[in-house]
Every structure is written in structure tokens, then in C-alpha cells.
Amino acid sequence: MPYKEKSDLPDSVQHVLPAHAQEIYKEAFNSAWEEYKDKADRRDDASREETAHRVAWSAVKQVYEKGDDDRWHKKK
């Protein structure tokens, strides 16, 4: 279930990530959704959706980090 808009993202993503990070998440999720459609391409027994969410969070963490204030900030 790829996401068309940032507003379609899960609440757990919308309420914690800045707008740019949400865009990264959405694009990475959608890309992984296509890339890992075949079960043989996924690790362990993870579902397609689980795998796409893992990839999306990983993409966000390449650019953003959670600060001491519990908010996500762009890495310097």
C-alpha cells in the first residue's frame, strides 16, 4: 500500500517527523514496496509492509537524528 501523500502516512510518522523527513519516509517506503514485492527478496519472514517500513526508517535516519529533546533534527 504505497503512500500518495504525506497525510496518508501512519500517525506515528506524521506526529514525530518534520515535513522533509516525512517526504523521505514516503519516497523510501514506496520504493521499497516495489523493490521487495517478492518474498525471496526480503530477509527473514518479514512482510512486504514491514520491510518497506524498515527501509523508510533507515532512510530517514541517514539524514535525521533524534535529539536529546526527543525531536528529530537534520544531521549536521
TrEMBL record:
SUPFAM superfamilies: ChaB-like
Pfam short name (any one): ChaB
InterPro entries: ChaB, ChaB_sf
Record-given protein name: Cation transport regulator
Superkingdom of origin: Bacteria
